[in-house]
Amino acid sequence: MELMQTEQLNRFAGFGIGLASLFTENVLAHPCIVLRRQCQVNYHARHYHLTPFTVINIMYSFNKTQGPRALWKGMGSTFIVQGVTLGAEGIISEFTPLPREISHKWNPKQIGEHLLLKSLTYMVAMPFYSASLIETVQSEIIRDNTGILECVKEGIGRVMGLGVPHSKRLLPLLSLIFPTVLHGVLHYIISSAIQKFVLLILKRKTYSSHLAESTSPVQSMLDAYFPELIANFAASLCSDVILYPLETVLHRLHIQGTRTIIDNTDLGYEVLPINTQYEGMRDCINTIRQEEGMLGFYKGFGAVIIQYTLHAAVLQITKIIYSTLLQNSV
Predict the structure, then answer these.
(1) The domain spanning residue 183 has which CATH number?
(2) Residue 80 belongs to what domain range?
(3) Domain count across the chain
(4) Predicted model pTM
(5) What phi and psi values does residue 165 have, to the nearest 5 degrees?
(6) In terms of Cα–Cα distance, which of 300, 283, 196, 191 is closest to 239?
(7) Closest C-alpha among 242, 253, 310 to residue 23
(8) Mapping DSSP to helix (H, G, I), strand (E, B) and coil, where does residue 271 land?
């Protein structure tokens, strides 16, 4: 009977831990993603918000002047982009010989085909990613109450050349393919490599501690769930930090010519237009370096620090709750 209770609790805890992690990544982190993107595309900004302290201050200002919605805008569209990405990957792998997973007996050809599948997926999701980016950075002050499927409509409109008239500075989708796919594939490679590496270290550590002493049932259950969560956390953090400059460039290229009005991240009130005139990825990199300096690529980096501090705190709290529940049941 006790064994059944423990198994039920174990199943419930596994589900709860996964849910807490998903909630943190997609819901709790959203205000940080909104502010980070607004800072990245704000070429006017004198304050770069490289530390969490200035980011918290500006978040408070936006919340005060525009209400809580200012920090939660575009959340529905980020889920739609994830859905489109997963759906596209499933459909492409179904109708082509491209593998969705890499087997243990991998070879260079299989890795190349797998990365090609990822590249095609990012290409399909690109117009929706672009529409979602606009939703997350567009100022709440001048925003209409857009529906949850607005991102899909805008994405299709961008491909077909329909919808809101854009300016002549809008970069064609073809010229956005390379930076979008490059960022997506690099993010995938870095996060996969770090996740496997961290998981290997944690499992080796767990195995040696199991050999050294008899572990408690609580500890062995924690070892079943937490290494993977910690590995995912480390993978996500490292890939976001390493690719932050490239993400800044990517977001500036996507937003150019879309007539987007963003919040003033220096003052916390007022709005600013985006009037950049980059000719492409190389021009964007050179212009940022010349006009904003190397730190210009890291605008809004303080939001990443807050995002992952929150994530680490939720992981720790979940671990404490789970340990307490298990100790009481054992």
Answers:
(1) 1.50.40
(2) 1-328
(3) 1
(4) 0.89
(5) -65, 125
(6) 191
(7) 310
(8) strand
